[in-house]
Design a protein that fits this description.
The chain is mainly α. The protein is about 70% helix and about 0% strand. The protein has one domain.
């Protein structure tokens, strides 16, 4: 299984992808031990049709905690979040969960872009710019996560 310590943002996005993959192709659950284990977790947690594994939610919660710490401690990080805020607010307003956190909205944005690319759909230059900002923010968080005791 992907190691969340190495890049927690990539780990969360990978888990979301595997959840959707197993929903679309349940017969592939036996293709590897990893998929078999994830499929079993999805069944035990009752998220076969929708939702996210507790594993993914726990990782997201860890990133959220680190995000809150950095907002208080790092002026450059805080400025990056503020630059992204209008786009995140717009994205959240278009979902069925407008009160989701900014970090979850970043993950949602990147995941939706992954899905669009898989469908060979183009994204607008504006969306590409927001994607770049969200990616940079999550890269910063992933590096900070890797350097903390949380990841161990």
């Amino acid at each position: 299984m992907k190691v969340k310590r190495d890049n927690i943002a990539e780990y969360i996005l990978w888990l979301w992808q595997m959840e959707d993959y197993l929903r679309a192709f349940p017969q592939q659950a036996e293709a590897s031990q990893e998929l078999h284990e994830l499929n079993g977790m999805m069944h035990r947690e009752g998220i076969v049709e929708r939702g996210h594994l507790q594993l993914a939610q726990n990782a997201l919660d860890e990133v959220e905690g680190l995000h809150r710490e950095l907002l208080n401690e790092d002026a450059m990080y805080r400025a990056a979040v503020m630059r992204l805020q209008p786009s995140l607010n717009l994205l959240k307003a278009k979902t069925d969960r407008p009160t989701m956190s900014d970090i979850e909205a970043c993950f949602l944005l990147l995941y939706q872009i992954i899905l669009l690319r898989l469908q060979k759909k183009e994204i607008s230059p504006e969306t590409a710019q927001v994607q770049q900002q969200a990616t940079q923010l999550l890269q910063f968080l992933s590096r900070a996560y890797r350097d903390t005791d949380i990841s161990k």
